Amino acid sequence: MDIIVCVKHVPDTTEAEVRIRPDKKDIEKVDLPFVINEWDEYAAEEAILLKEKYGGTVIAITVGPPEAEATLRRVLAKGADMAIRVWDDALEGSDGYVIAKVLANTIKAKGLKYDLILTGAQAADDGYALVGPMLAEMLGIPHATLVKREEVLDGRVKVHRELEGGLEEVVELTLPALLTIQTGINEPRYVSIMGIRKARKKPLEVLGLPDIGMSPDEVGPAGSWLEVEEVYVPPAERVAEILPGGPSEEAAKLIEILKSRGLI
HEC states along 95-123? Predict the structure, then answer.
């Protein structure tokens, strides 16, 4: 089974103080550490598990600057066979539509063969959750989102999708197909020293826009469908009110507040 996994190199803001750029179009990323997108790590692990079970190859693709190779090397160290990084300075500021178009053109230009394409359900930095479905449409293949379990059948894949309210949907897709992977589908493995050594010898190809038949005016803000007008930290409009007194006094005060606001 031949699998393509699309991954993204994203800033880790878990324990960082996030600052907005002066142009208010994004956050300051200069001093932030970067990691593989959480959802993509599960997608990469799932791709490698499927390869180990059914054989075949795993190719990792990312759209990003040279620093993004750290994420590709991580996937190679886990067990992927080769990686492709696509970048041009004109890609800065591209939305999900442009990224999906770049990925689709890369797959077509390189003539990559695949049974499955896996992506994360969404990216931690923008949360669009659009790249996977749009990539599937551009390639003309079926897709399923928020996949939490899959079973490969004869020429088909049976997937369990996570829905709102704790519901689950089971669907079957004809291969080739694209799945966006939800966290928790597996337990991503640690990168071993042996894996890191092997990853150094695996091919990592770097492509530019001309290599995939695209021009600068097709990417970046010029080619995007979405435009970020302003990024800001939401202001704190309300503060918590501490009710003084004992339990009975607090309960009486709370009832008065709820009545005054028409809630009871």
Answer: CHHHHHHHHHHHHHHCCCCCCEEEEECCC
Buried b (16+ CB within 10 A) or exposed e, 218-248: bbbeebbeeeeeeeeeeeeeeeeeeeeeeee
> What whole-number distance in Å separates Cα of residue 236 and Cα of residue 234?
7
Phi, psi of 117 (to 5 degrees): -120, 125
> pLDDT at residue 103 above 80?
yes
Looking at residue 228, what is its pLDDT?
87
Report whether pLDDT(237) > 80: no
| Block residue for tokens 């659009």 | 130
- Global pTM value: 0.86
Please tell me the distance from the alpha carbon of residue 66 to that of residue 72, in angstroms, as a whole number: 10
Query: Are 7 and 75 within 8 A, CB to CB?
Result: yes
| 3-223: CATH class | alpha beta
* Cβ partners under 8 Å of residue 253, min gap 6: 243, 245
Q: Do residues 2 and 56 make contact, with C-beta atoms less than 8 angstroms apart?
A: yes
User: Contact at 8 Å (CB) between 9 and 32?
Assistant: no
147-152, long-range: CB within 8 Å, 24+ apart, which pairs? 147/121, 147/179, 147/180, 147/181, 147/182, 147/185, 148/182, 148/184, 148/185, 149/185, 150/46, 150/179, 152/1, 152/50, 152/54
* The pLDDT of residue 249 is above 80: yes
Domain ranges in the chain? 3-223
Burial class (CB in 10 A: 0-12, 13-18, 19+), 154: exposed
Q: Are 86 and 63 in contact (CB under 8 A)?
A: yes
Which residue in 76, 4, 66, 9 sits closest to 206, CA to CA? 66
